[in-house]
Task: structure prediction
Amino acid sequence: MSIYILGIESSCDDTSAAVLQNTRMLSSVIANQEVHQKFGGVVPELASRAHQQNIIPVVEVALQKAKITKNQLSAVAFTRGPGLLGSLLVGTSFAKAFAMGLGIPIIEVNHLKAHILSHFVEDDAQQNHPEFPFLCLTVSGGHTQIVKVNSASNMEILGKTIDDAAGEAFDKAAKIMGLPYPGGPEIDKLAGTGNPLAFSFPEPRIGNLDFSFSGLKTSFLYFLRDRLKEDDDFIEKHKADLAASIQHTIISILMKKLRMAVKQTGLTQVAIAGGVSANSGLRHAIEMESEAGDWKAFLPPFKYTTDNAAMIAVAGYFKYLDGEFTSQDITPYARGGF
Result:
């Protein structure tokens, strides 16, 4: 029996809808919001207004591309949180109203868990997925976690950032260097032609499997402040080396903790997820470990590294199988909830 799930993702600045037949993706549509670029970051009020404009046409196109009618849907899955509250309210309200009109259940999904479960979306670009249990490093602009994934419904956080996230460190370094928004991809692009050992930055000494990136951001800021006193063009002259060096440091921090997690748990299937999982340096580091035989790596296709509704739909599918439906009085949350 085929289960058709409509997924809706509106946690930040992209409005996305996707349709899955069981775990097979039939369509995925994303409306981007370019309005934020001139502000150097997402403006919450503008984001929520854009979601209101985009959500109906995005869902309509997703259904058209999936070649099904709305009456064939089994349920509507939506991002409940974490994220920007105004943006989440748009997606939540639409999902509740749309499902009520069709007389089908709604399923609330945690955004971070959905990133992990994106590995189970089946399409031409992704056929294989990890087997339970496995480890997943989730890295984004707002979160950095090592998660033991026992099942689709049972996940345990083994370590997390105690302050800033890895993606935030990338973006802050890019902003300090005067690079355009979003900064993470710009750092990655420049790093490809730079020397990762040109400059060294201190790595935090945090116990267990937790992370910290606030000190690294401060160290990078002070380093450039001092160099710019000596040479106004220091950043421009060393842009690629700076990008490569800060990227090397961030990845080194992530990989050391991930190796510790593998050693402590004995799990050798390792996945990465979240926006920073698109970083070429991190992907290369994970692949190198896999080639060395230390673990089997699972890297998501690039289209599943950013926020997308396919990951929401597949998380909803697993909940549908377990009968985990949501009442109409549900409200979104901006933080926590894992």
